[in-house]
Amino acid sequence: MKQKSADVSDSEEELDPETHKKSLEKLKNIDPDFYNFLEENDGNLLNFDVDSEDDNSDKEDATEETVHKPGPLRGDSDESDFEDEDQKPVKGKISLKMVSQWQTELQSEGKIKLVTLTSVIKAFNAAMLRVTSEDGTSKGEYKVEGSSVFNAVIQMCVLYLPAAIKKYLGMEASGKDPQKCKHFVKIKGPLLSYLNDLLKLLGGVTSENILTVLLKHLHQMCVYVSCFGRISKQALKKLITLWSTGEETVRVLAFLSILRITRNQQQNLLDLVLKAMYMTYVKNCKFVSPSTWPGINFMRRSLVEMFTLDLNVSYQHVFLYIRQLAIHLRNAIVVQKIENRQAVYNWQFVNSLHLWANLLSVTSNKPQLQPLIYPLVMIITNTIKLVPTHQYYPLRFHCLEILMNLAKESDTFIPILPFLVEVLTSYDFNKKHKKVSMKPLDFSCILRLAKSQLMENGFKDAVIERLYALLLEYTANVSYSIAFPDITLLAVVQIKQFLKTCSVTNYTKKMRQLLEKIEENSKFIERERSKITFALNDEKMTTAWETSIKTKGTPLLTFFENWNKINKIQKRKKITKNDDLAGTLPMIKRPKISEELNKSNKENKGPLVLFPSDSEDDDDHFKVDDVGAVSVPKVKKQKKKKENKKKTKTIKAATNESEDDTIDNKDDIVQDLSVNDW
């Protein structure tokens, strides 16, 4: 401020005396009282003559006392305060030495100082401002310049800050709530700032590796995130997005963080999290393909785990969402329009059914959600009946799979066999196909078949394969039931009817094998059932008997387990496409042959045989031209008469010996390939 006052005095000295005198005369006319006051207190200001510039300069040098000099200002002006608020001074640049010192203090075995923690958090904030601010400058106490310092600061916070905060709060041994620690009030502000910056950094990162590191760090900081309601909601919003769209490792870490934050504030956040996660699940399961299946399955399993945190809270959500599915189905049944049917026959609807069936299966030993099994089964069975045409066989099979898993896990009888054997009786498998498909259709990622696909022979093959697998699995699941012969009676009758009418050998062979296994198991149960002495309405004794039969093993269950092992191996082969790789072997190209081999080739006056070909014909051999490419030589017709067999044998032996000698001289870089190697 002293510099400023000096500038003001200089400007006053440089004023024109003539104009200054005129302004004082005006002041006398305008405000005579103020003029009199100046005349009494500072007469020198008013008593001066208008001279030339040279005279004025001489007078200034001679008599400096006659010139008015304002004294120094003793108060802080408003202007200086405004400048300080606008541009805070930077304390200093962060160096690698400073980071190393902080790192040592964070790892010290003694007491952790609050100053160290706040300095580290401010350094992290400075690193964030370097990335997020428009001009890349920090307005805080510290400034981060250079990528090495930036990386060092981030690495220090990720690796050492969580343990240091835990130690400072005294949570190492107790593991209590951070808010109950006596030092939490001191670190609350810096901690809130740090978590804000961490979420900003998490939102701006796209690299999977860096995301993984930051999510692991956030998982450690979840205890402190739960202390702030606003931060918790922001973190959950970001984590749910990563849980539904990220790479596999990112998804898992995001879910673990969601679970930890929700558990710490279960009463306040569980409703919000369940709703947000379900809506995200439905949004991201609209399209199903082999690449998206793993992600959808992971979301479904993790969402089931979230709903099992509190079944009383979950009941309200599950009841509401199952009711919504029922309303969509009712509208489709009552109003026979394409739009209403499409609201049911889509992947979002089917995946929702799958989710609730999984949840009811997992919680079958607890009573809270069991009343919802009946309405869910009714929705699934009526979904099958909505459009029971051949085009929607894939959807039928998906729904039946859901029912089979629900029946098995919840130990509930659900009539599934009628929907399976209905396919055998409702479709004519003797009908000739109009198109030939190289491979059978895969129903795992489709709900509806095109009309062109119905004309292919692959459609009938796929239907029989799927029916065989589902019938075998369901009958194996109930093979130890005391009522097995009665459950499978109608199915046996309809399979026999199919065998009489169907003329396709491949289809009848599979169904006959299945029929034999079912009948064998029925006879086994009947034999065991004839030995019982208790009444059939005695539930406890019946359950105990069925458990003993299951432990002992049934013929059908043993057959299914063996078949399932082979089927899994075949599925893995399809996924890895081993057969395709083995079918398309790479082309073999040979290196250039030296001039000596070419000379010997000329001397022998015939194509040089390097090695026998991989084809079945042993007489064909590869030859190498001047360029080095491999080709099959053209065999010239021999004009000479046939010689004795003995002579030809000796010549062949001689040539083979010479060829072996030449090959031994130079190692062959190409090894023999076989299908087994792939």
Number of helices, counting only DSSP H or I runs of 4 residues or more: 30
CATH hierarchy: architecture of the largest domain: Alpha Horseshoe
| Alpha carbon gyration radius | 44 Å
- Beta-strand portion reads under 5%
What strand order characterises the main sheet?
1-2
Q: How would you sum up the major sheet?
A: 2 strands, parallel
Using the coordinates shown, work out and report the CATH topology of the largest domain. Leucine-rich Repeat Variant
* Helix-and-strand structural type: mainly alpha
- CATH class division of the largest domain: Mainly Alpha
Tell me how many strands there are.
4
Average of pLDDT: 78
- Number of folding domains? 4
Q: What is the overall silhouette?
A: elongated
Spatial separation of the terminal alpha carbons: 84 Å
Report the helical percentage. Answer: 55-70%
Low-pLDDT stretches are 1-15, 49-90, 578-588, 592-597, 599-678
Pfam families: Noc2 (PF03715)
Subcellular location: Nucleus
Keywords: Nucleus
InterPro entries: ARM-type_fold (IPR016024), Noc2 (IPR005343)
Draw up the topology in text.
Layout: H1 2-13, H2 17-30, H3 32-41, H4 53-62, H5 78-86, E1 92-93, H6 96-106, H7 114-132, E2 142-143, H8 147-169, H9 184-204, H10 208-225, H11 229-245, H12 248-264, H13 266-284, H14 293-307, H15 311-334, H16 338-342, H17 347-362, H18 373-386, H19 393-410, H20 417-426, H21 451-454, H22 457-477, H23 484-487, H24 489-501, H25 505-529, H26 539-552, H27 555-576, H28 578-583, H29 595-604, E3 623-624, E4 630-631, H30 645-665
Parallel strand pairs: 1-2
Antiparallel strand pairs: 3-4
